[in-house]
Structure formats: structure tokens, C-alpha cells
Queue: 4 jobs
Job 1
Amino acid sequence: MEVKVLTKSDIFNPTEEHKLLRQMVREFVINEVEPQAMEYNEKEKFNVSLFRRLGELGLLGLTVRIEDGGAGMDTVASVIVHEELAASDPGFALAYLAHSILFVNNFYQNASNNLKNKYLAKVISGEYIGGMCMTEPDAGTDVLAMKTKAIKKGDYYYITGRKTYITNGAIDNNTLGDIFFVYAKTEDNKISSFIVEKGFKGFYLGQVLKHKLGMRSSITAELVFDNCEVPAENLVGNEGDSLIHMMKNLEIERLTLAAISVGIAGRALEIMIRYSNERKAFNKYIKDFGQIQRYIADSYAKYMAAKTYLYTTAANIDLNKPGHRIDTDAVKLFASTVAKEIADNAIQVLGGYGYFGEAIVERLWRDSKLIEIGGGTIEAHQKNITKDLTKFNIPIR
Ligand SMILES: Cc1cc2nc3c(=O)[nH]c(=O)nc-3n(C[C@H](O)[C@H](O)[C@H](O)COP(=O)(O)OP(=O)(O)OC[C@H]3O[C@@H](n4cnc5c(N)ncnc54)[C@H](O)[C@@H]3O)c2cc1C
């Protein structure tokens, strides 16, 4: 029997195309993302022109088929791009996720051809920057408690409600984002979704939420829908059938958030290894102290476990078919806590130097915390995983 030996590279770059994609994104990150990361995070500003470069590189419609103007790539490819961007600027990676996964992929999988003709080219090029509106001031984890309503009158739906914590909700402090995938309740309290553009009557920027702990190069905003007038043709799919694509999109969101965590973890690990080879105390390199070795070795083992789980989960996900809740929840649960722990270990290994911005690890530590909250809290993952394991006969071994 011939046994195929899988290397790490086979798992993390299953095809030549994946390998080339990773190389291309890594080069872009070194040359264009890294030089701006500290400045944009410090200023809590979103780098719009750099974001549009992602469109030029074909990354904004990564999962859209080639015949529809995209790059025609798969879930693993999306994970690669998120991981590589996050190793330098997790906030920028989060803005990418909000656009390419929460808007573009969700829209592409569920919208009619008519709607795609109207918007797809603009979001793939980056002319329009998109986001997704699910969370409300009184409905986060308990998302089905959302109160935003859409009522149909003639050729329009009228949406009333508030959405909060929306990534890409604004482009800068005063400018509303361009286009949103908005969930609202229609007749019988069923969930429907709509494409809402800046400029629609009754659609406003509430406030830009400042002083975020991390992810400061992405903008988070509150958005207001005051009897917002939306053409009926901007309904995505059929009225009342959006729960299923909301759940599916949450799975892909969790996977790509886990990819951001793995990017953070890998960068923090690199920094701590390098420093332990350079810094001396008591006439020894600090890598020679057992306690420092424990930080490095434990971090490496957990990083590899998270990354391997991430790529094996990604390889099994078809972007169009729901049904991987347990592993997308579990990989995000694991990768998010591991990334925070590894960033924390890195600060510890760097000592006082690690506490300051120049060393980067303090920013990675702050950025890592978001993934324990956004796209579902770690408690929500624990609840879902336990529910699925105890309800369905999921094979463990
Ligand atoms: C920076 C940032 C960006 C975001 N971007 C977006 C975006 O683009 N679009 C969007 O729609 N949303 C976005 N969110 C919202 C995010 O998804 C929510 O914050 C998240 O789902 C948690 O909801 P919540 O904040 O209302 O917390 P809550 O639901 O109020 O939870 C508070 C606490 O109670 C716990 N809890 C709640 N229910 C249970 C339960 N059943 N069992 C155990 N514990 C429970 C939670 O785990 C948490 O610890 C973003 C959030 C942040 C911080």
C-alpha cells in the first residue's frame, strides 16, 4: 500500500495555486501593509486606498467564480489571505473579512442575478466597501431577538431599527460606509436580508465607536435606519428565508476569524523567538532559561495545533452548504484563546520592551481579544459545541 506523506506545506497550501497566493499576499503585506500598520492603528484610521489595492490584487472577490468576475478560489484560499494579512495588521484583516466574507461572499451565495448585476463588480473592485449588519444594541449573542423591522409597501421595503458594532460601518469619522448586507424581521417575525446603500433615504451613520481596545485600523460604527427606503428588488433571496444563510455565513465568519487568530499567533511567536536569541541576561541568552523555553515551546505546540485544525476544517467547507457548525465554532474557540495566550507569552518574553508599541506584540495582544467576542463569543461557541455533541451522534474518534 502506498502511503502519501502529508507535509505541513501540503496541509497549509494544498495546491500550487494556494502556495502562490500565500507568496503574493505575503509580499504585499511586507511591502505595503506592514509599513502603515503602526500609524493607522495609532490614529484609529482605516486605510481606504490600501484597501482598494486588495481589489486590484483580485482579493476582494476571492470566492466569487471567475466567470462572475472573481478569483474563483475556495475556503482555504480565504483562510490563507486572512492569516497573512493578520500577521501584520489584524485590524486591516478584520476590515477585509467584513467586506470579502460578511458582504461579498454572503451576497454572492444568496443574491439574485439581477442584484449581482447591480452590485457585484463594484464590491469586487473595491469601488464600494461593504459590511454586514446583524448585531443590535439589545441583540448580540441572542441574535434572533433583533428588533429591526422591514415593512413592504408597494415597490419598497421600509426598514426601521439600529445596528451596532458594524465593521466598515464608516470609512472615516464622518462618512457612512458604502454598502451593507442588513438583516431585519419581516412578516411573522421571520428574518430577511436586504442590500442597503449609502444615500438611501432614511439611512444614517449613528456614531463611530472610538477608543477600541484593539483592531484600531478598522472602523466600528452604529448605523441608524429611520424608515429607510429600500427598493423591493434589494431583498436578498425570498422574504423570510435568511436564517439559513445567516447561519452559514456565521460558520465562514468564524473560520476566517480563526485564521486572523492564527496570523496573530504566528507573528507573536516569531517575535518572541527572535528576541530570545538576541536578549541577554546574567550573561546568557534568555532562550537558555527554562521558563522562557516553556513560553516558546508551549506557544509553538498550541500554534501548530490551532493552525492544523484551521486548515483541516477549511478544507472541508463548501462555501455554499451549511453544516459545519461544530468545527467552525470549535476552531474559533481554540484559535482565539491560543492567540491571546501566545501574544501574552510574547509580551512576557520581551519583558519591558514588549509593553511598548514598537515591539508590536502589545498591539497583537489587544487585537487578539476581539476574536473571543466578535462573530460569537467564546461562551456562545461553548454552548453550541456542547449542544451539538450531546444532541447529535457526532463521532468523536
Ligand atoms: C470590534 C467589533 C466588531 C464587530 N463587527 C460586527 C459586524 O461587522 N457586524 C455585526 O453584526 N456585529 C459585529 N460585532 C458584534 C459582535 O458579533 C457581538 O459583539 C457579539 O456577537 C456579542 O454580542 P454582544 O456584544 O451583544 O454581547 P452579549 O450577547 O450581550 O453578551 C454579553 C456576555 O454574556 C454572555 N452570554 C450571552 N448569552 C449567553 C448564553 N446563552 N450563555 C452563556 N453566556 C452568554 C456572552 O458570552 C458575553 O460574555 C462586532 C463587535 C466588535 C466588538
Note: The chain has three domains: 8-125, 130-236, 242-391.
Job 2
Amino acid sequence: MLTAVYATSVTVNLAPADLPKEGSHYDLPIALGIMAAIGAIPPDALVNYTVLGELALDGTITTVAGVLPAAIAANARGHGLICPHASGSEAAWASQDLDVLAPISLIQLANHFKGTQVMARPRPAVRGLPGAQPDLRDIKGQESAKRALEIAAAGGHNLLLNGPPGAGKSMLAARLPSILPPLRPRELLEVSLVHSIAGDLAGGALTDRRPFRAPHHSASMAALVGGGTRARPGEISLAHHGVLFLDELPEFQPQVLDSLRQPLETGEVAIARANHRIVYPARFQLVAAMNPCRCGHASEPGFTCHRQPVARCIAQYHARLSGPLLDRIDLHVDVPAVAAADLMLPPPAEGSREVAERVAAARDIQVTRYAGLGLPGILSNAAAPANVIEAVAQPDAGGLALIREASDRLHLSARGFHRILKLARTIADLDGATEVGRTHLAEALTYRIDTARQLRAA
Ligand SMILES: Nc1ncnc2c1ncn2[C@@H]1O[C@H](COP(=O)(O)OP(=O)(O)O)[C@@H](O)[C@H]1O
Ligand SMILES: [Mg+2]
């Protein structure tokens, strides 16, 4: 940036001109450029600094989004960073050696450069753990749904819970974060970058908690997949390396749901702008819940719909979900209404802590396996590409016979076939088994039978 000051006018040149510039990040660099030009700070003070920040009229520097990626870029260029005070601890994460200046106001920065009030380097902050999380122990009965939740958490698989209102679907999903393993350092940085761009890092602090995003079913396309005037990351990117929970799945707009298909496959989303294209990561785990029909009771024995035959009521509701979306869901679980007798039982002996230990052990096996194959970027079975999963989930003879028979019977797509292998691999990992056996495949197939049924109905 070049700034020249003449008697009556100030000329600021933001080069390169063809790069679109958005946001209030340029306030602080423009002001500092002018201050250096008029001698309010030493003329060479800004050499080797990358600067961003918004300026209030009284000279205080207010926070902007995207400080963490800016700090990483500054570090790569061998620059220091000048950023708003509130973003200092976010910037400090980029590198221990990065020179970070995070002033509250222009005056504080000018005093720093003059040497009258030298600022300390901000410290990287970690967000404290939120209060007690809901625990799986609160859920009575529903053993098969809990097992499916554990498998989904262990391998990062997509899950659909289907059952009547009040069966505990939302309750189950809300307990998923309590059994997910913490983010690994590499994941933490990727997640924080997206949240930084979205201006979502509270107080500049990072956390190793996996994101859990639960947008309402009225969410727009831009809110879910990203975009809008500032090409902000959407919920699917904010759920990167975490969970996107869509409650009442068929109530979402069908086009919005279909826009999830491509990111579900590739783990990223491209947002086209007038003259450039932004790609955000979006490797999220989809967890969805739905009622079997609009009235919600079609799965109850003896229920008769007052509007039309029950089968048609179910089919109409399911028709709102496209086949390709359902095909991407690995675990499809029926959650029946919980019986009063079950509700009166004492709480189950096993809670989130015990399940989380098994999940963490299975994830460690996966990370070690893919790192051993020279694929350190793959951290879960769900993220493994088809050719890799074929190699690592080769079933034994019994398993092979089973999957051959099942793929004919269920009319499995190639995607469906690979997804079953991934699921069986996770079930074997939870079991501590090196080979995928017939029992692992048999269990994986039970979660697919409902998908096949629903695909035919759709
Ligand atoms: N298995 C269960 N054990 C204990 N309480 C349950 C169970 N299922 C449902 N409940 C109770 O019913 C309420 C509604 O559950 P919710 O998860 O909202 O149902 P759904 O999402 O299936 O409509 C819960 O807040 C809880 O009080
Ligand atoms: Mg619910």
C-alpha cells in the first residue's frame, strides 16, 4: 500500500487493483500508512508487518474476522502481525515465533513504536470447557440407537434416526458431542481457520471440542452451504471435522438438502463469486432425525391416519428426501417409542465416559492405520477413499459371501457397497479386530436395510 499526503488531500492506493477487497480490515493499515507518511510514527516502523483491523472514530481498534489465517500467512512471509487487541490471542496460535502486536488503540500502537509504552505479546488462549454436557446415561432403553450412535462417532459415519415424536431422537443426537474424541492438533487448526473467517472465535480462543452445528430447518441455502454478500462459510464448513445435525430432516427445503450431496462426497464446498471462487473445507458428519410421516405416528402398531392410507402418508413424507442423499447415509436406525416400563428403570450403568473411551480407542486405530499407509490426512474410516477402503476392509471368506448375496438383494450402488465396507471396518475397529469378519459385515448391513427400503419408497 502506498500513501502520499499533500497539503489538502490524501491519496491511498490499494494494490493490486484487480483483487476485490471486502470488509473493514483495511481501516487500520490505511490509518497507519497515513501516520507513517505524516511522521506520527517512525517511517520504517511498519516494514515487515502485515496489518489488519477496523477503526472506530475515536481511534480504538475493533476486531475483524479472519485474523488466524492472516497470522499464518504473515508468518509464512516472515512478517510480524498488527491486529486488534481482541484478536491477539487468536493470532498468537499461528506460531510461537510470530511477532504479534495487538493494540487497543492507535495511540497505544504509536506509543509502542516510540518506545514509551511497549506492548507484551498476546498469549494463545484456550476456551474453557463448557459446563456439564448432557450424558448418554440420561437415556433409558434405546440400546440399538445408542449402539448406532457409538459406531457413527467411532468412524465419523452419517446417521439417520427415524421414529415417532418424543422417542428421544433429539435427545440422542444432543449426546453425540459427549462421546466424540477431541480434535487432533491438525484438525484443530483447520477448524479454527474456518471459524476465524466466519468471525466465530469467541475472544480469539480456540477449543479442541469438535463442532456440533444444529441449524433450524428454515435455514437458507447460503446459511447452510455458505455464500451471501461476504461469501461467509456456511454451517457445513463450520461443522468441518465435527457434526452437522439436521433435526426434522424432511422439513428442510429439498434444494437445500440436495446441495449437501457434493460436499458429503468431496469434503469441501466451492462458492462461486462474480470473479473468483472460494473453496471451504466441509468434511462434516451428517446426523439427521425424522418422524416416519407428517403426523409422526405411522410406525406405531394399529395407527390409522385420518387423512389417507398410512403407507401413502409415509411415502409422501419420504419423497421429500432424494435417493442420492439417502444413499450417502451409512446408518439408518429406527428409534421406537420408549415404553413406560423402560422409563421407570434405574439409569443405565454405562454413561458417555465409558462409550467415549471405546470411541477414542477405535479412532486411534484408524489414525495409526492410515498414517502407516502414508495417508496422514485420513483420520477416520468415513474419510477413506474407495480404493483405500477396499484394501483395508477386505472381508474374510464368510464376509465375502455375505456381502455378495446382500448386494444383489439390496441392489447396492457402488457407493452403497463402499459405505458398507467402511461401516464394517469401524465395527471391527471397535471390536479390536484386524480383519473384517462376517459378524461385522452382518451388523453393518442391518443399518443399510432400512436405507434400501426407504430408497425404494422414495
Ligand atoms: N429413552 C428416553 N429416556 C429418557 N427420557 C426420554 C427418552 N426418550 C424421550 N425422553 C423424554 O422425552 C423428551 C422428548 O424427547 P426428544 O428427544 O425431544 O424426542 P424426539 O426428538 O424423538 O421427538 C425428552 O426431553 C425426555 O424428557
Ligand atoms: Mg426431536
Note: The chain has a mean pLDDT of 87.
Job 3
Amino acid sequence: MGKRVVVIGGGITGLSAANRLVELSSEKKIKLDVLLLEGSNGLGGVISTKKEHGYIIEEGPDSFITTKPWALNLCNRIGLDSELIHTSDKNRRTYVVHHGKLIPIPDGFMMLAPTRILPFLTTPLFSWSGKLRAALETVLPRKTDQRDESLASFVTRRLGREVLDRVAQPLICGIYTADPETLSLRATFPQFLEMETKHGSVIRAMLKDKQISKGLKNGESGARYSLFVSFKEGMQTLVSTLASRLPQGTIRKNQMVELIHNSLKSWNVITKSGDNLSSDGVIIALPSYQASKLIKGFDPSLASDLSKIQYESSAVINLAYNIEDISHPLEAFGFVVPKVESRAILACSFTSIKFPERAPQGIALFRCFMGGALNPEILQTDDPSLINMAHEELCELLGIVSKPLLKMATRYPKSMPQYKVGHLELIEGIKEKVNKYQTLQLAGNGFNGVGIPDCIHSGESAAKNIFYCLQRKSV
Ligand SMILES: Cc1cc2nc3c(=O)[nH]c(=O)nc-3n(C[C@H](O)[C@H](O)[C@H](O)COP(=O)(O)OP(=O)(O)OC[C@H]3O[C@@H](n4cnc5c(N)ncnc54)[C@H](O)[C@@H]3O)c2cc1C
């Protein structure tokens, strides 16, 4: 075939796309020139692992879910199986901040619904009227129309306001750093809608779900931690392994793409440094507002749709302390903070409890999240102030009596897409407009999932579509 495909963006989406193109070219014995252009000096986008003084510090993502198969499948293909590690099998639970104290999410409470009676009845997290309201979920009639609705609407309708404010908002919206009043349930957790439609009740459906029952037997609550894995040496392993497999010359760093032109037979990719690269196919593997800028010149309507997907910013603060200076027993993987508690931290992972090898012996490593749709103003503060706020809240909540041994703040400006009510319709419209071009593909976290497996799937699907399209054209 002897054709060229340019992949724009060297995050996990772009790397997966480039890798899949190279795999297909080798499997089908069809020559293909793949070029990956990355605007910065590094690869991996928001994935970044730092190793220092015996710590393995994740600045961005720290694990991925295995129920969506694409990341695991990729690991199998590129020989990373033996590098995978599971979360610790102890303490698989989450605390919630409740009136300034850490209270465990009751055993059997999964994301937004209780599945065990006694722990739910005895938890101080909800009032008696809140508990009664949640229990009514099992007998409430199901919604009959299929219209999209927000997480807030769904949870208050089925389980009541207390469940939303105290657990569902911090646990679910924490994943998307989103506002529950606008987060589309159909685009983020369609399984809950399906549970209502099929079983008439989320609680009853969860009780029947075998995977959830398995987690419950192992004492899990909150998120389903048994389903998450990482790499012994951190998430960067995936990035460096993918990069090392690409043929020499494939990756060009410090190549910020500014524009794309579309001519009848090919594409022209123009970089900030003035290069004009001609290409038979283009995969844009960027956050959608960045893709929008590149597309504006030749398709303003598509660009306008892409710019409608909003992105929120966040900061991750890594802090470490001597365990002997912490009075709290840390019998969980972390805590989440409901908006109603009005705190600076949105959530905190007890990194060295979740993955014990991440900190030297005798030291606890924490990862705190700040910002997001519900507290964007906090990010106007400088790094030392963010670190200080996180430190002070950890001292108060965990009984820490010393200064941090390690402190690190990393900012993620406009990195988390907000899947608002109507997101799926917006994406359908975007797909229709992109389909017109055939040799242009859009991939990334703005469309059908924000997690690493989703991004890999998105990049690999884009690669497959372009590969077969070019193959058809050359016959
Ligand atoms: C703080 C944080 C924690 C997260 N935690 C988890 C987690 O634990 N598990 C999980 O599954 N997911 C997690 N996610 C989500 C997931 O990590 C991201 O959705 C995913 O990594 C995005 O990858 P991407 O390649 O699509 O985009 P990005 O990582 O944003 O990569 C885009 C790349 O394109 C480059 N670029 C931008 N513009 C241009 C241009 N014009 N020309 C050339 N290059 C350009 C950028 O420099 C960047 O390298 C987290 C996200 C964040 C922000």
C-alpha cells in the first residue's frame, strides 16, 4: 500500500492507535508509514509516573478497570501480563467524610445502592428517613420513557436525596470530577438505567449480579476495587512499552499540530514549527476542544460540535508521612468528600494501602484530588497553597502530627471531559459528520468513555477504520 497515516497526540489514545496501525500493517503484510506527532517533550499525556527515593508516584491515573477488556488485551499482546499487579486484597473499602469524620461506606453499598440490610441500617451516614427512602427503591415503579437524565435526577428519583448527597455524588462524580446535576447517566453508568428497566430496581438487580456478589463476599464496598489493576513500576510502563514497540522514526516529539487541510486526495498536517506533512489518513487523538481547533478551517460545523464537549480541570497532590505520625488506622483504600462537607479535597487515595509497594517501609503515601466541576475556583491558588490545604485537611481527618516527607502538586488543565445530559446524541451527530471523510478519524476521552481501556479502544478502533479504508482505496 505504501501509504502514510499521521496520528496527532502521544497520549494513551494516540499511542494505542499508532501501535494498532503498526500491528495491522505487519499482520496483513501491507506497508504503511505511521507518524505520531506529539506537541510536548514527553509521551503519555496525563499518564505520568515519578520514581524517587523508593516511592512510585502516580501524578495522573493510577490503575485501570479490567471489566472493559481493551487495556488487558493490549497488555497481553505487548507482553505486559507479568507486569500487572492487583490492588491489595485487604481493606477494599472507602470512607466518606461525614460531619468532619471518616465513616466507612457500609459493607455491601455499591456506588449508589445498599445491598446488605444490617450495615445499611446501622451506618451513621444516613438518617432514618434517608434509610427508609432508599429502601423504598425496591418497590418504586420503573421509569417508562427512555430519555437521558442526570445522575442527580436518577438517584433522587430512585433512592432519595441523602444517598445522592452523601455517597453517590462524591463516589460517582469523583470519577468524572463532574456536577451530578448535569452528568448524563446514560453516557456514564448506563448499567444503572438497565437495572431499573430490566429488574425494576437497582438494589434487586445488584443482588442478582454475580460479580457484585463476589466482591461483597470479599468485604468490598464503594467502588469494586478487585476489578482494578496497575503495573509493578507504575502506569508509565504502558506508555514506554508502547513507544518502544513503534518502528524507529515513528514518534516525533515537540511537534504541536496547528492546522489540518483537506484536499481531494490527501491531508496536509501543519505544525507550529512550520512543517507541512502530506498524509493519506489522519487520526486526531486529542481532547475534543483541541481537535476542534485543528478542524475549524475545513469543517466549522464539526468543529463547533466538538467544542461543545466541556472539559474540567483538576490537581493531584501527592503527600507522604511516617506511619507512626498518623493516628488513623487507614483501613481502606481512601476517602471521598461530599460537596455538602465544603472541603478543599474532593477525594484521597491511600496509595500505599491500595498498592503496598508504592512507598518505602513505614511510610504512607496519599493522593489527593482537587478542583473539578464543583470547585474550579480552588485551582486559581498556587501550588504551595494547594499542597498546604491538602496537608491541613489530611492532618485533621487522619490525625497526622508531622510535616509531609514528600509533597508534589500536578495540575491537569481541561483534562476531564464532562459527559452532560444529551452527550450520546451529540456524539452521534459528530460521528455522522466525521464519517463523511473516511480517512479522518477522531479518538480520545471526549467520546465514549474517559478511562484508559476506553481510550485504548477508541484509538485502536480509529486505527482499524483507517487501515481498512486505505486498503479498500488501494485495491
Ligand atoms: C488526574 C487524572 C486521573 C485519572 N485517573 C484515571 C485512572 O486512575 N484510571 C483510568 O482508567 N483513567 C483515569 N483518568 C482518565 C484517563 O487517564 C484519560 O482519559 C486518558 O489518559 C486520556 O488519554 P488521551 O491520550 O486521550 O489524552 P491525553 O492524555 O490528554 O493526551 C493527549 C496528548 O496530545 C498532546 N497534544 C495536545 N494538543 C496537541 C497538538 N495540537 N498537536 C500534537 N500533540 C498535541 C498532548 O501533549 C498529550 O500528550 C484520569 C485522568 C486524569 C486527568
Note: The first strand starts at residue 3 and ends at 8.
Job 4
Amino acid sequence: MNLKRPFSPVLLALLTLGTVASAQPKPPTLSNDNGAPVGDVKSSQTAGENGPVLLQDWNLVQRLARFDRERIPERVVHARGTGAFGTFEAVSDEHALTRAKLFAKPGVKTPVAVRFSSVIHPGGSPESLRDPRGFAVKFYTPEGNYDLVGNNLPVFFIRDAIQFPDMVHSLKPSPATNRQDPNRVFAFMAQNPQSTNMLTHLYSDLGTPAGYRFMDGNGVHAFVWVNDKGQRTYVRYRWKSLQGVKNLSASEASATGGKDFQYMTTDLYGAIGRHELPKWDLYVQTIAEADLDKFAFNPLDATKLWPEDKLPLHKIGTMTLERMPKNYFEEVEQIAFSPGVMVPGIEASEDRLLQGRLFSYADTQRYRLGANYLDIAVNRPRVAVANYSQDGAFSAKGLSDVNFSGVGSPFQTNATYKYSTRPLAGGTQQDVIKKQGNFAQAGEVYRAMTAEGREHLVSNLAGDLGQVTNKDVKATMAAHFYKADAAYGRAVAKAVGLDEAEVARRAATIAE
Ligand code: HEM
């Protein structure tokens, strides 16, 4: 054999291919959950050609058992949602009002996780259904996580957390028929005139946004900012969409939902995929502690707006969403937001609705995700957690001998981080708030709408209220809208076939 003979072109090609093939890393061998290599995932182990499947096929049993446990309890509300990740950048210096580091000076950047959602309808339900929309933001700050868990609508149905289970039960499908039923919804709302403002927002086209990018967000409650001198200021938050607020009419919503029932999620993936990064500016309104009682309404009442002409919005930062989740379950289904998750410089106000929320979220998350839910990657603070919480399912704290606060303990408290203090008055009580003013703001909202907006509101309301068979409930609802604005009440009465004079008489018997 003449070794000097050059390789033939065919042989050369084959050799080159061989070299390329051997340069490609071999994919790792598929393994089972205990890490052992698996030989076959298409055939179970059987006793001969026609014999039964063997229980000893550990890989088969493991695959089925894992599949059987893929679901966790869905959120009791806000089950349907979409997440995204990005950055919040402060544009102002708020240190005179709060010592929270994320708002301390312009240019401070904080990574965020966001989850948009609908409220009542279950996971996988069409995104075109009328509902308030959740707007929850988790800030991963250098002093721990801060969650701002808001909605697109600026007010709420009720003002006391004790009513939340009743409210949600009335809005969810009937336990008997599993159908959502306006008879049940309005049987609750008719006894709760404070819902008039929220219903006026919800039945406007704000109840069917054109996409998550096109919604504003609202903290809804008053929160308290505390500065390094311990001084307290009441604040309310507002996210303003830089894409503009865009909504669908009822007929547009049903057409859009008919074509793509997940159009809001599709839109967000599309925009971020095209690098059209959605942005929101964050604003606050503030009330000095001494001024809290100076308004016709109670600023701690979540059924009320803080009027922007009296309490101007002040811009504090901008949020940009930059990426969609890499794994939906891990980063969105398992994300846990709570209004109780705060950082030094931000505290809860006395708002009775907020106070109940402070308990409810972490409680449901311990049930939904387990005791160690804050160790899940998306929930974990970006700073080391230094405490003695331990054990529970999936514990990985790695604590050693000293697991308590005492002499020589590894972690020590720092008194500068104590909660702020506030004087209290009066005794314990169970009573409604004094300044209820259930209708005035709903009337202002109605009058500020365009003629087309009012028409949509009335026809959207009539679509549901018109199905109510209890005449008393129907007339009471129309009377609430009449109290907000006589023209509004008359239009609703007419649209649902009620006698307008009778509605006006009923309205006269209802307290403001
Ligand atoms: C007392 C009144 C309320 C109670 C008891 C309550 C309770 C809950 C519960 C139990 C969840 C499920 C949490 C989870 O499984 O992770 C939830 C989710 C949520 N709630 Fe509320 N809620 C109340 C009022 C509100 C209000 C007023 C807002 C808006 C300002 C709001 C916004 C949200 C949002 C955005 C979510 C979804 C968070 C996420 O995306 O995971 N809720 N709520």
C-alpha cells in the first residue's frame, strides 16, 4: 500500500463526517429521578409477549406517579395569570418620606417579577371574560423582597376583609350548578352599596382590557412610608402604562376571545419577543399623617379613590419588562406575592381590607406551596436569609447547633429596623366606618366617562343585571346606580325593564 497516495475525495468526506460526528458531544443518557440511566421509555416491562405489566418496572411506576402529582392547588382567586421579569428604575429621591432603598435615589435599579391575572375565572379560562385584573409586582431589593400586589381597577368591592369569602363565593360559580350566576353576584352586591364604585369601573370597558400591556395598575390601599426619623406618611400607588390604556368593548372582547382565548398572554409574549419592552411609570399620592381625617371620605377605605386634583400623582420610577418565564410552572404558578411582604420604610396602613390580606396570602401559600415556599427560586430574596426558621417539607436551611436567638447566636437583631409607632384611641369595637359615602365617587366616575363609555357601561351592566329574577335585588341595584347619578340609575332601570319612578323612590330611602 502506497501510504503517500492522497485520500480519495469520497474517503476524505467520510473521514471528515466521522470527525464532525465524533466532535459532537453525545447527549447525556436519560435517567430516572434517582439518577440511574434508563434503557427504554416506549415499552413497559411485561411478563412475556402477552403477559401483564410488571410492578417491578420502577421506571414505569415513577413516571406515572410523578405525572399524577403534577398539579398543585390552583390559587383560590387569580388562578389564571401570566408572568414576566424585568427591572424597576427609581427616578426620584424619596428618602425624606421613606427609608426604603429601592426608592432612595434616581438611578437605583431593582430586579422585578410581575404576574398579571384575572380574578374569578379558573386557570386556563378565556382571558376575554369580564373581571378585575391582578397587577402584582415583586421587587428583589437589597433589604429583602417587597411585593406590591395590586389590581388594574383603583378601588374594591368591599372595605372589610371579613366579607371577602362571601364576596368571592357570590362571584364564583354556584356550588350546586357550577355556573357563574348574576343572581348570586347581585344578591351579594345589593346588600353592599359600597360596591357601587367598583361595579361602575368593572362594568365599564376597563373590565375587558385589550392586553396586559394596556392596563394601569393600582395598589388600591393606603400604605405607610416611614423615614429614618420614624415619621409616617400615607401613600397610594399607581402604575401608568406607557403603552396607553386600551380596552375592548363587550362585542370586541367576545370576538377577540373567540379567535384567541389567551390573547392577553399571546400579546405579552409577542411584544417581549419582538423586543418591544412594555413599560409602566410608578406614581404615588401622599397624605401626611396629621391630614388623614381632613377629607370627605376615609382615605383608608379601599372602595374610594384618592382624587388626583386634591392629591396629585408624583412619579417615582419606571418598570420595564424584559423577559418571559423560562418555565411557567416554576416561575409563575409557584410565585407567591403577599401584601405583607415589605421592606424597612414601607408598612401597612390600618385599612381593614389590607389588614385581612396581610394574613391571607402567606396562609394560602403555606397550603398551596408548602411551609418552605419562600425557598422556591422565584420567591427567594436576593439577599441571604439569616434566621432560625427550619424544617418542614423540603427544608434545606443547613442550620447547625444554634437554631435560636441567644448568647453567641450567629444572627442578631438591629433595633433600627423596629416597626414605626402610632398612637391609638378608643376601645375594641365591631362597627362600620363613619364616612361611608357609598355613591358620590361612582357618580363622578360615571360623569367623567364619554357618552360611548356610559352606553357601554349601562349595556354591560344590563347584560348581567337583566338576568336577575329577584325584583327586589334588581331594583336595589338600580337604586344604587341612581344614587351615584340619577341619569345613570334611570339608564340602568330602563335597560333592565324597571319602572324609573319606583327606582327613584327606592333610592330616596337609601342612606348616602
Ligand atoms: C380581604 C381582601 C382580600 C383577600 C382576603 C385576598 C386574598 C387573596 C388570596 C388568598 C389570593 C391567592 C394568593 C395565592 O394563592 O398565591 C389572592 C391573590 C391575589 N389578590 Fe387578593 N385578596 C383580597 C383583596 C385583594 C385586593 C384589594 C387586591 C388588589 C388591590 C388583590 C389582588 C390580588 C392579586 C393581584 C392576586 C394574585 C397574585 C398573584 O399573581 O399570584 N386582592 N388574593
Note: The first strand starts at residue 81 and ends at 90.
